[in-house]
């Protein structure tokens, strides 16, 4: 069929998305940064279920590593027709008055520059104007882009605001090139990301404040991503799906 690249697919939302895309028949390129063992486990789980996958190590904030990752995909037999820009980072909860330039720049380098670089390389390969077969991109943003994450990580929230603007602008730029670009904004999803912010139990702390009274599961987010990539969403571009339990 075709290849779908999922960045940050070694765990959490990326992992759930990789597993579901494989069920849909994609060959999944499982990108990871540090955790080779977890990425290998995702590839093995896909293969055990009869699907196709391979892992690719690359730090998406590093331009040369992103280019090398896409060149590795070029060496595969199938074309790349789907990109899920999912890899994202945040750091310990903090107010803006305590943020350093070093931290802000690290967040932006991965969450913004990394998304731009992967979009750039994907467009070069998918664009029908360049002889590609077309394709679809889903950028994983966050409800934080709307809510701002006060007292927690405004730097992260701002990076997701930039992801939303990238999604809007790129969707218009490549709409006539056979490429759809959409975004999703998850809310409070049960993954290990909250431990990176210093509060592993964050979803359970806030869940009673959510209209649906519960956090979300990575598999629920994956369903939305896979739908946006599919032909069922063939007339959808520049759109955003909220996955935040009503918040
Ligand atoms: N969880 C939530 O509540 C929530 C809510 C809204 C939005 N989101 C967004 O959803 C996406 C996935 O979140 P998650 O909760 O599943 O995160 P997670 O469990 O922390 O997983 C993050 C993934 O990103 C990878 N990664 C981090 N930096 C990378 C880099 N520089 N290059 C390549 N890969 C990198 C990690 O790889 P290694 O482990 O191999 O290093 C890991 O696979 C993120 O964009 C996040 O902002 C999450």
From TrEMBL:
The keyword Oxidoreductase applies. Residues 2-187 form the Ketoreductase domain. It is an enzyme of class 1 (oxidoreductase). Pfam families: adh_short_C2. GO terms for molecular function: 3-oxoacyl-[acyl-carrier-protein] reductase (NADPH) activity. Its EC number is 1.1.1.100. SUPFAM superfamilies: NAD(P)-binding Rossmann-fold domains (SSF51735). The keyword Nucleotide-binding does not apply. Keywords: Oxidoreductase. PANTHER family: NADPH-DEPENDENT ALDEHYDE REDUCTASE-LIKE PROTEIN, CHLOROPLASTIC-RELATED, RE15974P. Belongs to the short-chain dehydrogenases/reductases (SDR) family. This is 3-oxoacyl-[acyl-carrier-protein] reductase FabG. It comes from Phytobacter massiliensis.
